[in-house]
Structure formats: structure tokens, C-alpha cells
Amino acid sequence: MIYRINEIFNSLQGEGYNQGRPVTFIRLSGCNLKCSWCDTDHTNNTPMLVTEILDKIERYNCRSVIITGGEPTTYNLTPLLTALKENNYWIGIESNGTNPFNNYYHQLDYIAVSPKGAFLNQKVDEVRVVNDNCTTEQLQQIESKITATNYYISPKDENNNFNILNSMQLIGKINALSANHWSISLQLHKLADIR
Ligand code: SF4
Known about the structure:
With 195 residues, this protein is of the alpha/beta class.
């Protein structure tokens, strides 16, 4: 199985429940959506075998990986997940939520969804939404479809200025209507100016 790799790098998880956790990111190229604001270069990638991916991440001496994209679920992830589990990695994934995780639940340690497009009804660990003029109706629609343990809103960054007040007001409104508890997650990697 060949995976088209956009980049592999070691950093920390900048947002959500695992914020601050040192991880190696495996960024897969390609997506099933075409969001107008997308900043991922889907044309620039290196085809790699599972053994080559493992070789590369072993160099970072970090036992946690996050598979991101693009959209990771556009690939058959079983060979990669199986190899990572055999080598005792903690595995997180980041997805737009448009494909089911059914085949992967038993191998993934943490599933985070930033819902986009026609996202599915499913159960995950985390929902993350960037507050770009979100409405309570949008958030209610998301939580009615996606069951998660953690729900986060990240204030949109405007050149490292985060409109936290606006997000707090939004959270106040949604939490008054909701059985879930949305929280703010500042994007640490942007504050620290790292990848
Ligand atoms: S879902 Fe994410 S990776 Fe895919 S096109 Fe939209 S922003 Fe880009």
C-alpha cells in the first residue's frame, strides 16, 4: 500500500484535549472536499510505503502520532494503523467527518473531527470548530449529528489576535441550550508560531 505523504514532522498537538502532547504528524495528501479556504497543498507529495513511513517517524523517538491531511479516510488506513499498533504507537486522527471510522475504531486511540461538507452521524472523541462567525444553530446541528466526549471552539486567529470574547459569548449561548459542554481551545501552535 502506497500513501501519498504531504509531510511528516514532529511537534506538539496545538489544540483540543491533547493540547501540548508531543506528537509526530503524518500528513496525508488529498481530500474528498474542496473547501475554498483550504491551505493544504494537495499537489506536493511523496509516495511512501508503510515501512518507509515507520522508518521516518522512528527517527523522532516519539511514541505518539497523529494522522492528518488532507482527509486521511480517503485512504485504506488498515496497513498503516496495523503497523503503528504493532510498534506500540498511540494513534490519533484528524478528519473532516465525511467518512465512517467503522473499520478503524479498534486501532485508533483518539478521533478528532472538524466537521465539514456532508459530515456523518457518528461517535468520536472530539469535535473541534474554528469560530469563523459560527452560529448557535450551526453548533446545535453539529452536536445533534456527532456524539463526542469533548466539544471545542477555537477562536479564529487574525495574525495571532484571537477574538476570545466573541467565542466566550457564543459558548455561553450554546451551553445554555445544550447538554454538552463546549470549551475554548486556543491554538497553541499559532501562539508559539510553530507547525
Ligand atoms: S476538508 Fe480540510 S483538507 Fe479537505 S479541502 Fe477542506 S480544509 Fe482542505
